[in-house]
Amino acid sequence: MSDKKKDIVQIKNPRTGHYVKIDRAAGRILDHKKSEGPYKGVPVARPGAKNK
Amino acid sequence: MIYYSPVDGDVRQQPVEWRPRTAFVMQQLGGRLPPEVTKARRCIDRELKRARFETIDATSIVSGKDFLAKIWNLMLGCPVGIAIVHEGIPDATLANIYYELGILQAYGRETLVVRVGDPKLPSDTVRTEWIRGGTGLAKAIRGFLDGLDDRGRYYLEMSSLMDRDPLRAVDYLRRAAILSGDDTLLGEARRIWTEAAREERAKTSVEELALSF
After folding, report:
1. What's the CA gap between B180 and B152, in Å, rounded?
2. Cβ–Cβ of B161/A26 closer than 8 Å?
3. A45 vs B: CB within 8 A
4. What is the DSSP letter of B78?
5. Cα dihedral sign for B68, B76, B90, B36?
6. CA of B116: how far to CAs of B34, B85, B140, in Å?
7. CB-side exposure of B27: number of CA atoms within 13 Å?
8. Contact A22 B201 (CB under 8 A)
9. How do residues B137-187 score in pLDDT, each as one tens digit?
10. What is the ipTM of this complex?
11. A residues 5-44 near B, CB within 8 Å?
């Protein structure tokens, strides 16, 4: 897996119940999922794990 | 975050007085209130207390200064805003409530509308969470308040994920701190700020975006 890809994670927004895709290297939100469930092939950020 | 004074339009010079674990309740305060509104307010206060939130409203502080400025100072410091609307509210009061609700949403606070009776909501609030007053209000409020813990954890996690954009990371951290009441997060905010090397910031960081007008 490339370094770039490793920096992209997803997390569930409890307000909407939908996942948000984040580019950690760029420090920005890439996308808000419109449908249920997580993005395929994108790791889910582990709570409290600092995600380094 | 930059806040503008509603009085003169200039950037506010004084820091926001944060009020962790508080909820700003927006409702008609003067005049004759329908009994169901009084009952709803009592229920909201009870559930807020149960969830360790302090209730704040426009009467909480007597400043003797500009009323709008006072409301702003109170509101901005609160992580949560709850509006109580009902059919009998005078139009001017209702407009004030929606104005305050809009401010809170624009600044990323958690908001909820409690509909007592069957008031029509403005179309701009179509995305705003709302619940009905009356039977089931306590349970619905409890559900909303319990969900705030998840939101606090989400903001904390987002702060960690956004560390290449220090302003955004600190903003998420502050939202987590005022929702949870965990004042140790301030130390973490200071650490993010101190360790944030200018050259490592993302091209889309808040500071870089601020330079793109």
Report:
1. 6
2. no
3. yes
4. -
5. negative
6. 10, 6, 13
7. 32
8. no
9. 999 999 999 999 999 999 999 999 988 888 889 899 999 999 999 989 888
10. 0.84
11. 9, 11-15, 22, 24-28
